[in-house]
Amino acid sequence: MKESKSAQYHSKISKDYDVMFQDKYWDIHTAVESSKLNKYLPKQKSLILDAGGGTGNFSIECAKKGHEVVLTDISSGMLEEAKKKIKKLGLEEKITILNQDIINMNDLKSNHFDFVVSLGDPVSYCQKEEDAIKELARVAKSGSFVFITGDSFFGRMFKLITDMNYKELENLEKSSKIQNQFDFIEHDFKVEELKNLFEKYNLQVIEVFGLLSFINKIVKEKLEKILSNEKNFKIIKELELKFCNEPSIIGTAGHLGIIGKKK
Ligand SMILES: C[S@@+](CC[C@H](N)C(=O)[O-])C[C@H]1O[C@@H](n2cnc3c(N)ncnc32)[C@H](O)[C@@H]1O
């Protein structure tokens, strides 16, 4: 079967994916995301779903901690890279890999997982964001956490205004969807929309956070210069960590994270 445009794009970049996010901006992004993941990841050995898990970085981290993981994705290339890494680390027993669309995870039982994550925007990329959230909620056990990150409406608006991209600005305002720089349609979330979708599918909202709320508004060249200074990097990282839950600013972050507890 022909892969979707998003899956094709991810298969094309799969071999480079793990080095594409190695710069100071993404170091801070990872620091904020990891601080939240560490807070909610079960301490006891658990069954974890990493939906849209790509090259398997989070799955591998969990397996190393002794958890059992199911890693799903729709890009054959991304899963191929994950398979190679998992084999090299001898973690095949701990991680099950499935080529599965997040909007319809037929092979997965309801009320089954102790922790469900979908990191790095699969919910924005899947074309049916509501179905994806419904599915993630369905497979989570009652009392467990569901943790997702997705693209942000107002974060995107800042970028489109900077680029003077009026066509996509109109699309964004009309539908919350744009054709992104990778040539596939993505859905950009507002905080209230995400919260309402979580509540609709039986997930009590525990917290919402922004990734990142300050440095996503600085143009690339200037930002690189600022972050190349170790003192600036430290100060900015601390500010992003400190204010990542601040309601006045998080809606304008580049990405949004949300954690819900299945009722
Ligand atoms: C930016 S990558 C993030 C990968 C990984 N979660 C991470 O944080 O490194 C987005 C991933 O979403 C996957 N994806 C896109 N649409 C999907 C869908 N409908 N179902 C499952 N995965 C999807 C892509 O193939 C890609 O691996």
Give a structural overview.
- By secondary structure, the chain is of the alpha/beta class.
- It has a single domain, classed as 3-Layer(aba) Sandwich (Rossmann fold).
- It has 13 helices and nine strands.
- The protein has a seven-stranded mixed sheet with strand order 3-2-1-4-5-9-8, with helices on both faces. Strands 6-7 form a two-stranded antiparallel ribbon.
- Helix 3 packs parallel to helix 12 and helix 8 (153-163) packs antiparallel against helix 9 (166-175).
- The longest helix has 17 residues, at 24-40.
- The chain is globular and about 45 Å long.
- The chain starts with a helix and ends with a strand.
- Bound molecules: S-adenosylmethionine.
- S-adenosylmethionine binds next to helix 1 and helix 6.
Named CATH topology? Rossmann fold
Question: CATH-wise, what's the superfamily?
Answer: Vaccinia Virus protein VP39
Per CATH, which architecture?
Answer: 3-Layer(aba) Sandwich
The number of domains is 1
Please tell me how large the radius of gyration is. 18 Å
Indicate the overall shape.
Answer: globular
Number of strands: 9
